[in-house]
Amino acid sequence: MRPISVLRHTWLCLLTGVLAALLAACGDDGNPPQGDASPPQIDASLIEIDCSWFAGPNCWKDSVAAAYTCVAPDATGTFDAARETCTYADGTTVRFAEPVPGSLENYDWRFDIGPASGGSACMSFAEQEDASGSEVELVTSLGTFREVTTLSDTDGTLRIECPDGVRYQIGVIAALQCELSTLPGNVAVLSTGTVRFNFLGRSSTEGNLISCSDNL
């Protein structure tokens, strides 16, 4: 079976709606009507960032690095029959909010990783989106990283809140100018009954956050 990869920047999935609205607003000359465009929703209490923030050290990379300490880097666990949990040889267990389907398209990843029974989760992750925006939350030993995207008629605003409480923002169109591999996101790969999930925009590409198989 050829590996099937599903790469996802949750806010990027919503950008098609923004661009569709922009095209619909264009006049006969191909330009948006003057005065009708809605600018990004800028909050003066947040720190404005650009592509250099994503490319350099940041709290997303720190949070992701903390998440990867929750699993052995080269281990593969086993799904239960319903694909609601995945258990590794050392007892580490991934619990999924919804069973992992055979096709990963349009699957919202929501899970935590922790001991097999009892105790607190080592980390948790959740993503969701609707027509008005999206939200991503990653909880680790550092605290909570949160990314919230809201859309306007012709753009959108991506807001980031770090575990230390510092908050940042950038326009969605501006973020699109950045190297996609540096932006917060995730990629899932399905190959011969094994599902691998990793975060994008991390400092190291070694190891898998989740590697789970049906046939061990």
Give a verbal description of the structure.
It contains four helices and 14 strands. It has 216 residues and is α+β, with helices and mostly antiparallel strands. It has one domain. Strands 1-12-13-14-3-4-5-6-7-8-9-10-11-2 form a 14-stranded mixed beta sheet. The longest helix is centred in the N-terminal third of the chain and has 16 residues. About 9% of the residues have low confidence.
Keywords:
4 helices, 216 residues, globular, alpha+beta, 14-stranded mixed sheet
Brief summary of the model shown:
This protein is an alpha+beta fold.
Number of helices: 4
Reported for the largest beta sheet, the result is: 14 strands, mixed
| Structural domain count | 1
Total DSSP E strands: 14
State the oligomer: single chain
Compressed to H and E, one letter per element, the order equals: EHEHHEEEEEEEEEHEEE
Low-confidence stretches: 18-28, 30-38
| Structural class label | alpha+beta
Distance between the termini: 17 Å
Arithmetic mean of pLDDT: 83
What radius of gyration results from the CA coordinates? Answer: 19 Å
Shape: globular
Strand order of the largest sheet: 1-12-13-14-3-4-5-6-7-8-9-10-11-2
